[in-house]
Amino acid sequence: MNKAASLGKQGEDAAADYLKSKGYKILCRNYRCRIGEIDIIASKTSELFFVEVKTRRSLTYGNPADAVTRQKQGKIRTTALQFLQEQNCAFKSINFDVIEIFVNGDKMQINHIQQCF
């Protein structure tokens, strides 16, 4: 695993732990289909959350959430529809969140941006 993939996995692990600590139930991690991939799918009460995780060591290329472009958002939405078609369950609402992870040495800062697209 290269450094970028390792950093991404570390960020996704931290995001999953964060969500669990906030009362979310992790339904799936790294859901993949022919359309795309969703980092974390979670639920809380009767709500469903599709979460994109972006991890960075610096802000050289902007905030991590800036990497979730309109094109990426569309791909996540379409992938989410595929997931919903495969599952036969109902949720009161569906949310698309981004979790930014800032890594500085051995410290992490988490920024959870809810319902951002």
Structure commentary:
There is one protein chain. The protein is of the alpha+beta class and 117 residues long. The protein has one domain (3-113): Trna Endonuclease, Chain: A, domain 1 (3-Layer(aba) Sandwich), CATH 3.40.1350. It is 31% helix and 38% strand. It is built from two helices and five strands. The protein has helices spanning 3-21, 70-86; strands at residues 25-32, 37-44, 47-56, 93-104, 107-113. A five-stranded mixed sheet has the order 1-2-3-4-5, with helices on both faces. The radius of gyration is 14 Å and the shape is globular.
Element layout with pairings:
Layout: H1 3-21, E1 25-32, E2 37-44, E3 47-56, H2 70-86, E4 93-104, E5 107-113
Parallel strand pairs: 3-4
Antiparallel strand pairs: 1-2, 2-3, 4-5
Question: What CATH architecture label applies?
Answer: 3-Layer(aba) Sandwich
Residues in helix, %: 25-40%
Unreliable parts: none
Neighbour order of strands in the largest sheet: 1-2-3-4-5
Q: Compute the number of structural domains.
A: 1
Labels describing this entry:
117 residues; alpha+beta; Trna Endonuclease, Chain: A, domain 1; five-stranded mixed beta sheet
Outline:
With 117 residues, the protein is of the alpha+beta class. The chain has helices at residues 3-21, 70-86, and strands at 25-32, 37-44, 47-56, 93-104, 107-113.
